[in-house]
Amino acid sequence: MIPPARTPLNTVLLCSLFLFSPYSSGSERGALLFTGAATPEGLAGIERVLERAAIPYGKSDDLSEALEASIVFLQGDQEESLFHEGLWRRYVAGGGTLVVFHPDRGFLSLVGASSFRLSSSRRRLTWVGRGEEGMEALDAPFLRSVPLPERETLGYLPGEGRGLALFEDGTGAVVERALGRGSAYGLSLPLGEADESLSQWLGSLYCRRVPFAVRRVPAPKGESRADDQGPALPVKTILSGRNLKVFCHPSSLPLRVKEGQRLESITLFGENGEPIPFVSVPLAGGDTEVRTISPRELPLSPSFLEREESPLGERRDDSLRGVYIWSNTFEDYSRKALLDRVAHFGCREIFLSYPKSMDPAAATLFLREAHERGFIVHGVVTDTSWLDPSKRSAVSERIQEIVALPFDGLHVDIEPHTMDEWEDQQELLTERFIDLLAHFRSSVPGSWQLSVALVSTFPETALARISSLVDRVGVMVYWIESPERIVVKLNPFLKLGEEKTQLLLRPVDFDSPAELSRCINRVLRVTGIWKVAFHDLERWISWEKEDATEK
What SS3 class is residue 344? Predict the structure, then answer.
C-alpha cells in the first residue's frame, strides 16, 4: 500500500483559490458572494447552499471587486440600480461565471430567460442533460428528481438560454446562457427542499470553473486546521505554514503547489476527516501538482472481497457480511447451490424473503442445512399494506407463522418511501411504520434479532425511536459507488452506534468486484461499521458472470 497521505515537500506554498479572470490581468481569483442590496433572508439561503456545497467564497458589496472574481453568486431580485447590465454582460463574455438566484428585471435576459411564471401547482423538478459535463454529480435518482411541497414557485420561460432543471410544466428551475467565453445561470429552485441536489450541482460547477480551488469541509472533532480563516476563505487568502493540513472535498484535487515558502509537509483530509491519498507531480516552472492516486494505482487484493482488520480490533470488517435471497431465487436453485453461492461470496448472513406462498417445509429444510453450515438466517417481510392499522390482526397471524420456523431473526424491508402517499403523508406513514415495528418487537421471541432496512434519506428525526425498537438498522445506499458519498449518506445513522448500523449495497452499482471491495473497505475504515449486506444474490451472480465475460 502506498502511504502518500503525508508527503514532504521542499520549500513550497499551497496557493489554492485563484485563477485567471478577464478583469485581473492574469491574477488568480476565486468565488465571491455579491451582497449589494441583497436581503438578509436571501443571503442566508444562498450561504447555506454554498456551505453545504463546501465552496469557499468571499463576501463583498463592492461591484469592482465582484467583477474580478472567477465565479460570482448574487441575489437577483434586488434594487434595479445595482443591475449594471453592461458590466455583468462584459464580465460573463470575458470568461466569468455568474450564478443568479431568483433573477428578475434585467437579469432575465442575461441568464437566457424571456419571462417567468408563478405557480402553486408544481410538485417536482428534474435535472436534464444526463451524461453532460457537470451532470455526473446528479446521477442518483433522488438527486436528479426532487419532490416539492405545496408552495409557490417561479418557473422561467426560455429565451436565448436552455433549461438544466425543469418543473413538470416545462418551465425552467435552472437556466443557462453561454455568452462569449463565460456563462450565466438563473436559479429559481426552492431553497430548502432542493438544497442537496443544488449543492451537488454547484460544487461540480465550482470545480470546473475554478481549477486548483479547494472545496473545504469541516475539520473532524479534535483536529485543528492550519488553513482556518473562518467559515469561508476570502478571495485573496494564501494558505501557508510549515506543516499544512488542508481539509477539502476530494473533487478539489488536483491542487497546485508553488515554490518559494518554507512548507515542510502537507496532509490532505477529505470528508469526515479521511486522509486523501495523493502524489506530487513536478510541473514546468518549479511548481508541483498534487493529485489523487487513481484506483488503478492502488494494489489489488488477491481475494474477491478484500479482508482487512476492522477499527474494532478483534473483529474484522467481514465478520458479518450478508446477502438477500428473494423467493423467486429460492425457487430457481437447489438448497446446496444457494448455500454454496452465499459461501463463495464470503457471506455468513442470509436475508430470506418469506412470502405467504412459500412452502414452510422447503423453508425448514433450507434453514436446517444453513444452520449446519454455520449461516445466520433472517426471515424478510416486505408488504407495505401492513402499514394499514386495520390489517393488524392479519399481520399478527402472519408473524406467528414466521415465528414457528427456526429463523434467527425477523428483517423488516417494508419501505414506506416507495408508496404514492409518501410525498403528502410522510409524517403519518412514518408514525405507522414505527408503530408496526413496535408490534413486531412484542411479537418475535426474545432470542430473535429484529432488524430493519431504511433508505438513506429516511427522516432523521425518527431514527432514534426506530433504533430503540430494533437490534439493527440497515441503510440502503444504492446507485452510489463513491466511498465519500456513501459515508455522507451514512452520517445520520452513525449516531445510532457502530454495533447497530449495517451498510446495504448493490454490487451491480460498481464496475467490478475489485471496485466493490475497495469501496467497502474504505467506508468501513472511516465509519467503524463492520456489518455489510448485499442486494441481492441473483443480481450478484449475474453481475459476477458479466464481469468475468468482459475480462
Answer: helix
Q: Which residue has the higher pLDDT, 76 or 538?
A: 538
Full set of structural domains in the chain with CATH: 1-14+235-299 (no CATH), 17-209 (3.40.50.880), 320-550 (3.20.20.80)
Backbone φ and ψ for 388, nearest 5 degrees, come out as: -75, 115
Asked whether the beta carbons of 138 and 76 are under 8 A apart, the reply is no
Q: Which three cell numbers stand for residue 146?
A: 426532487
Q: What is the pLDDT of residue 415?
A: 93
- Residue 249 in grid coordinates: 472535498
CA pair distance 286, 256, nearest whole angstrom:
11
φ, ψ for residue 107 (rounded to 5)?
-65, -25
pLDDT of residue 501: 93
Q: Is 476 within 8 Å of 451 (Cβ atoms)?
A: no
Query: Counting Cβ atoms within 10 Å, is residue 299 exposed (0-12), middle (13-18) or buried (19+)?
Result: exposed
The pLDDT assigned to 137 comes to 63
CA distance 457 to 434: 16
Partners of 100 in beta bridges: 74, 186
User: E strands within 393-524?
Assistant: 409-412, 449-455, 472-476, 501-505
Residue 12 is predicted with a pLDDT of: 26
